Amino acid sequence: MTLLKRIAPQLVALALLVALVTVFYPDFLKIGISGDRLVGPMIDVLKRGAPVALLATGMTLVIATRGIDLSVGTTMAICGAVAASAVAGGWGLGPALLLALAAGALAGLWNGLLVAVVGIQPFVATLILMTMGRGIAQLITEGRILTFTDAGFAFFGSGSLLGLPVPAWLWLACGLGMAALMRRTALGLLVESIGINRRASALAGVNATVLLIAVYVVSGLCAALAGIVVTADIRGADANNAGLWLELDAILAVVIGGNSLLGGRFSIIASLIGALIIQTIDTGILLAGFPSEYNLVIKAVLVLVILVLQSPRIAGEWRLWRDSHRASREAALQRGAAK
Amino acid sequence: MLLTIRSLTKTFPGTRALDAVDFDLAAGEVHALLGENGAGKSTLIKCLTGAYRRDGGTITLDGATIDPQSTVEAQEQGIGTVYQEVNLLPNLTVAQNLMFGREPRRWGLVNSRALRAEARETLRPYGLDIDVDRDLGSYSVAIQQIVAIARAVALSGKVLILDEPTASLDAAEVRMVFDVVRGLRERGLGIVFVSHFLDQVFDLTDRVTVLRNGRKIVTERTAELDRVKLIEHMLGRALEHEVAGQAARTAAARPPLLEFRGFGRRGVVEPFDLTVGQGEVVGLAGLLGSGRTESAEMMFGVRPAQSGEASDAQSRLDLSSPRAAIAEGFGFVPEERKTDGIVAELSIRENIILGLQARRGWARPIPRSEQNRIADDYIKRLDIRTSGREKPIGELSGGNQQKAILARWLAMNPRFLILDEPTRGIDVGAHAEILRLIRELTQAGMSILLVSSEIDELVASADRVIVLRDRRHVAELDGPRVTGAEIMRAIAGGEVAA
Amino acid sequence: MTRFLMSTAAALAISATAALAEGETVGFSQIGSESGWRAAETTLTKTQAEERGLKLQFSDAQQKQENQIAAIRSFIAQGVDAILLAPVVATGWDSVLQEAKEAEIPVVLLDRQVDSSDDLYLTAVGSNLVHEGEVAGKWLVDTVGDKECRVVELQGTTGSSPAIDRKKGFENALAGHDNLKIVRSQTGDFTRAQGKEVMESFLQAENGGKDICALYAHNDDMAVGAIQAIKEAGLKPGSDILVVSIDGVPDLFQAMANGEANATVELTPNMAGPAFDALEAYWKDGTQPPKFIQTESKLYTQADDPAGEYERRKGLGY
Asked: Which of B345, B358, B408 comes nearest A190 by C-beta?
């Protein structure tokens, strides 16, 4: 119940958005079956939303600790390059995936150490890897799109399982699994606690340093998964473009999810809905068939409207208006009854 | 008089920080401004330098009424300030720092030769012959401090306010800075000197003004002032009236629980020995800056000791971090409740179980029903006034926040609980309840270290009192010697034997 | 390995390759290695120099104009015999080109143009982007004949000159052929991933792709992504939907060899060949080349031995 209450604004925003897209593209909610898989715009949203949803899962935790991870887009490129070069080099699928995840964990560990041990501000600390990492990815791919033919790897991008695309399963499993891990253990409380007041938490015995590092490692692992998905999708590692600017979409998803950039209370599920909202906008724009010059403007306007509608102040005004309205109506009813 | 302040008043929401304070400063005088935390020293200085707007009162400088709106304006009118932390730019050169904002220009460009020459000229009266082209940061803190003084004097020239200028200096450096200050006094400046170090006050100043709780208590000539009297003024307690509330101190030796040997940290607290008995309340007394809080933090591993060791009957203790100290059965209620104690947006329940949960580890969450039980139990037992356990702790009053933090530690059942100013900023009722709680806990066998600036509190609760002065444990009072008079005498320094 | 070293070397590190005894020395300021095509351009410039017995001084500017200007100044100081410049931006070259002119060193622009007066450089070698679009469009017009054909277009990055010109050229070729209609046109940002995602939405919006007769992509990378999308939608690229694009990168030749793409218009990475031809003539007897040398925009189809073209190209660093 409390969860539903927490994510209600995001669900409403998503529903309104879907309704809006349906006006411009009436078949948006249509789902058909092609072979053994479901097809339709909503299925595309679930699939295409995977990178941002995966990144947003890790980003939510980082932001909950009052941090930010700008390096996730670049980490995607590195991990995709590692996986593709391992597969292309004949290492086999399992080792390639493990190597990619290890690369993501390493990137997260680097960020975490800079933030938690060296004490660099998260924005600056992760900016280092953001700018440097794409060069690392280019070194791995030697500047070209590193293609591969391994069908097993491609399955992570374009395969389907029980009718749904594999990327959709991946982000659902990762996001919901992480949400459950946070709430079924004490991790959620401890993460929120260090995000609100790291010093007080440390004095209460919370292992703030290790926890902070772990959060960045999780973010790196999520980025690795996202990198695997986009690389598998196009059957090639594109070091120049993979994950480019996606860190900003991930942060946006977290914000649309109603999580404060100042840290503290968080909801991964709300961030996931935020990612779906962003992807619905993107897919909706493509399907509606407007000239591409308008893409970014439309996206910006929609995001702005959603954020404004969700802002606590507007919500407060609305409640005030509703309550006064209700009160005057009840007063009118009572007057009527008195007659 | 060079500077005259009359009826200066400043109110913040909920507190009257300055209550009709009068203050005079003569030309060629060093005037000490003393007071404990919350006395109103920094508010007075901020009103004087334009950082705060005053609510009432007048400030007269050289016969003219002034009303500075900003520190820059105060500077232009003749009042300069130097803070403990040098507020200059370490990566600019000495000359650039000295002349910053008033560089000599030629055709709109900085004339660097004139800049250097003027900078050297500015420093000459201070006997400081240094390379003005080197970065300020490459010099010692004392020299940086003197450069800051030179800059402030050059900019303002009438009144110089030194806000704890010696807090991070060693003895030789203090002498250096004092020579500079004496030179300025001879040149006819009026100097306001804020410090916690009484020896320095007696060494340097001509007059002393003591503030307490926003009021001026006394202004006297330093030479005529008795140390014990001064402490009385600062702590607000006349020695004649012993308070009735005395701890029922038992002379009987308690079984020792903990032993600290040669425990210290360079530049923070001199090494000390301390034995804490089972169920004993050890008080820690001293002025602000004497090393009270630092000693407590060292014992809890916040800033771990560099020398010595701590042990119990069985073995040596690891106190290298708060987590380690907690594992040894230590607890710590910090002085700064807002920054170091509460996690404001979390609920009372979450704040109470936070320490317990951290000790159990993340993988073993405390079941929600158990959390509720613990929270409700302590809300009732400590009488935390709240509409419910799910209320964010930040919305509680100070006293209730403090009780919730105490509950956090009591839930962990420590054997040694360190309380740093547990009654600071809380109402009278909660104050008494916390002191009562301390007695209950010790009766149940818990040992407590009570750090307090309130001597009454120590006399009422402590079995034994350690007195600190200038980062050193200077006296240990026990049994019948735990009286206000003895404590004050020890704080003031002098004949009390350790 | 050379490329590995190149990209790790510092921005201004200048490596000499192909040192032959008496050849002229040519300085080459390259933009960077942001795409496979550019890497191929670098590789081909080096092999061309080697074949002609020229000494090539190579400098990778890593996308920074100040690095390029510094490199050119260093070339001038060394007294090279000619300078090749692939300018990262169009403006801000006047003074450094003037310096080269005063040192009497001819400058040849590769692949991109500058806004400076054309007497500051010897010549510019490049392709005509509009023409490329026209070649692609003409192929489609000729292939489709009189049949009705609904075309979808994957544009390059919105507002970039290749996107604008290749769109314009293609539309020029289609003008007057009312049976061909561009029904959907969206940007795929020149990337494989976006090409695939946008193509998915085209397929979705056009009756699962059954209403689409041809795809025109502004570059091969987007086409490669789109081909995957078409396959995943259960259609056959190359027959159910015709695929024509521009650039001529190896992966597209492979797709053509597999019958999954139909045609590509080559943007040759061999800009250095015509440049060296012009320079050699200039050195020999001072022949002034025309101010713009247009490279051939050659059309390759499935009939042009795509497998062989793939083999020839795959080692170039694309």
From this structure: B358
* Chain B interface includes A260 (CB < 8 A): no
Give the distance from residue C183's alpha carbon to the nearest chain A alpha carbon, in angstroms.
9
Q: How many CB atoms lie within 10 A of CB A81?
A: 28
Question: Token pair for residue B366?
Answer: 């405390």
A5 has a chain B CB within 8 A of its CB: no
Tokens of B117: 């020459």
Tokens of B6: 């009359």
Which secondary structure element, helix H or strand E, spans residue A138, and what is its range? helix A122-141
Q: Which residues of B455-469 are buried (b: 16+ CB within 10 A; e: fewer)?
A: bbbbbbbbbbbbbbb
Interchain CB contact of A196 with B (< 8 Å): yes
Question: Measured between beta carbons, which residues in chain A are less than 8 angstroms from residue C158?
Answer: 292-293, 295
- The predicted structure's pLDDT at residue B237: 62
Q: Determine the CATH number of domain B256-496.
A: 3.40.50.300
What is the CA C207 to chain-centroid distance, rounded?
34
User: Over chain B, what is the mean pLDDT?
Assistant: 87
What are the Cα distances from residue C302, in Å, to C6, C137, C241, C243?
35, 16, 15, 11
* CB-CB contact of A265 with A192 (8 Å): yes
Strand runs (DSSP E) across B136-254, as ranges? 159-163, 190-194, 207-212, 215-221
Q: What is the pLDDT of residues A151-198, one digit of tens each?
A: 999 999 999 999 999 999 999 999 999 999 999 999 999 999 999 999
Inter-CA distances, A164 with A30, B285, B444, C193, Å: 15, 70, 63, 20
Search chain A and give the residue with CA nearest B394: A196
CB atoms within 10 A of CB B91: 10
* CATH 3.40.50.300 residue window(s) in chain B: 3-225, 256-496
Query: Are B334 and A203 inside 8 Å of each other by CB?
Result: yes
Shortest Cα distance, chain A CAs vs residue B112, angstroms: 35
Secondary structure (3-state) at C272: helix
The Cα C43–Cα C65 span in angstroms is: 21
* Chain C residues whose C-beta sits inside 8 Å of any chain A C-beta: 3-4, 7-8, 33-36, 39, 155, 158-159, 184-187, 189, 191-194, 196-198, 200-202, 204-205, 208, 221, 224-225, 228, 232-234, 251, 317-318
Interchain pair C187, A292: CB under 8 A: yes
Instruction: Please give the Cα distance from A188 to A206 (Å, whole number).
Output: 12
* Domain B3-225, CATH class in plain words: alpha beta
ipTM of the complex: 0.87
State how far the alpha carbon of A317 is from the alpha carbons of A255, A310, A313, A322, B413, in Å: 21, 11, 6, 8, 47
The most confident of the ranges A77-81, B8-12, B67-71, B131-135 is: A77-81
Closest residue of chain B to A188, computed from CA coordinates: B362
Q: B326 contacts in A (CB within 8 Å)?
A: 205
pLDDT lower than 50: segments of chain C:
1-21
Q: Beta strand pairing status for B105-106 and B109-110?
A: antiparallel
Question: Which positions in chain C touch A234 (Cβ < 8 Å)?
Answer: 192-193, 196, 224-225, 228
- The H or E element that residue A324 is part of is helix A312-338
* Chain A nearest CA to B437, separation (Å): 20
User: Residue B464: left if φ>0, alpha if ψ -120 to 50, beta else—which one?
Assistant: beta
| Spatial CB neighbours of C255, under 8 Å, sequence gap ≥ 6 | C223, C224, C227, C237, C238, C243, C261
DSSP string for residues in B270-285: EEEEEEEETT-EEEEE
8 A C-beta contact, residue B257 and residue B329: no
pTM for the predicted model, two decimal places? 0.79
Fill in the amino acid letter for B44: L
